[in-house]
Amino acid sequence: MTPSPRASVTLLLPGRDRLRGQPVPAELGRRLARGDRRDFDGALGAQLFDVLPRGWPAAAVTRARDAGDAAGACWLRADPAFVRAEINGARLLAHGEALGLDREQADALMRPLRLLFGDAGFVLDAPVPSRWYLRLPTGVSLPRFASPDEALGADLFEHLPADAAAPADGRRWRALLSEAQVTLHNHPVNADRAQRGFAPVNSVWFWGAGAAPDRVSASIDAIYGADDATDAFGHAAAIERRPLPSQWGDTLAAHRCAIDLRGLRDISALHERWVEPAARALDARRVTEVRVLFEDGLEYRLASMQRWRVWRRPVEQLADDTAADE
Q1: What is the Cα–Cα distance from 125 to 113, expressed in whole angstroms?
Q2: Comparing C-alpha atoms, which of 255, 250, 249 is closest to residue 223?
Q3: Among 59, 208, 238, 296, which residue's CB has the most CB atoms within a 10 Å radius?
């Protein structure tokens, strides 16, 4: 059977640190070792979308989808967040939709924050209760902001706003973050949430800075199970966004698609339900290519001709997976 020249599959997997300590299934190790390995920089979604000007301005693109008014400004997400203090630091444990805010709670929490950010020259609002936005002047100098997925569960201080080239920018935004945390700490909404067993909203998370792009196009026709930002870029590129199936099905091999599996943490399940069935579709020539993208910046491209690379040592640990060509 000759595959459609347009039929290909891209599997978006969590970062390898999220899978640490789990043995790599033997067949998965062989498949990856025989593939073409490449490291990439930047956001995972940028491997699917062509964004002009270059970058990953998630705040502006989600704002365009949520409110339709992204043009003419720089945008920064300032999403509601739950940070837990620990003896040696703090960790980001939840953000955005995971906190389950309704409209009334979001408005109440933002009321004092609007004054805080307004004094700094920024406008805060939330067209969706779980997605808060700062409107910034165009051309404003900004530090690097880590995405919440990058920081979730990690040491907070390793992901605070920073810019080695312009230290003052990082200090300014760290100070704003601290003031926001103080403002939220004793907010009545959090007292009510605590009584009902919900996590407090005791911080915000800055991320996704940038202006609306001139153009967004895609190398795929559809994406399954996309997260918030990837969904917004899919909307901008006018591709189909569909729910994530429970496992691979051959209908997925009918077009160029991406499948967002970053929420999964069981490497055996990822292999059995997704990678291996997709690779078998490749063996049967129902697709021309399978791309396996790890969120931390590693890609494997699998093609049918690679089955002859039998000399390559199988990948045994994802943390140290340089394939040997011996």
Answers
A1: 10
A2: 255
A3: 59
